[in-house]
What does this fold into?
Amino acid sequence: MNTAQEERRSEKLRSLAERAGRELEDASALDILGWAADTFGRGFCVTSSMEDAVVAHLASRVLKGVDVVFLDTGYHFPETIGTRDAVEAVMDVNVITLTPRRSVAEQDAEYGPKLHDRDPDLCCRLRKVLPLEEGLSNYRAWATGLRRDESPTRANTPVVGWDERRQKVKIAPIARWSQDDVDAYVAEHGVLTNPLLMDGYTSIGCAPCTRRVLAGEDMRAGRWAGRAKTECGLHE
Ligand code: SF4
It folds into this structure.
């Protein structure tokens, strides 16, 4: 495809995303995912941090064997890897694990140890942003578990929007959900969740950059605590 064709394709996808965002604002999560499955078929995937399998479960109801993309940064808690393995074993989804180009040891050798403490933006870029960009290259649309109530930076998340950086349609089927909605769905459908959610963690990322939250803190306060950083760069 030449550049002009790519630009036309992107423009078409962008207006499709913007129109769907308006039309599906009040739709249920299942209807939003149903639209994605009908529109993109196998050109659509779900990304999961394996905090829980709610969006993967919803997507598997509208597209059996849907691709569920997981970024294995090399820094995850064992419980997160265990959740990924359990999802793969019991759910009707196709788990795809993406890994960074460098192992943690290779990154340490090149950039020095504990890059996450010295330059977390670079560490996230190497271990999350770049691998996801490569991993999503074959899809036209991707779904995430972003919710508006998680943090002020996510308050305006559209249910369907345009991912300018990756030139893809980005779907947030549970953007309007609250934590109570998530808990109710998990209980009703017996959805797999990360055991750390029962151990004081409300948002789970890489082990060196995640701590338990304290009473009164917001859900993502345990991520990069004590730093100005609030997002890994995947959703900016
Ligand atoms: Fe590195 Fe921390 Fe980002 Fe994980 S969350 S990629 S350890 S900076």
Notes: The domain at 3-190 is CATH 3.40.50.620 (Rossmann fold). Residues 73, 75, 116, 120, 123-124, 127-128, 205-206, 208-209, 232 surround iron/sulfur cluster (CB under 6 Å). The mean pLDDT is 93.
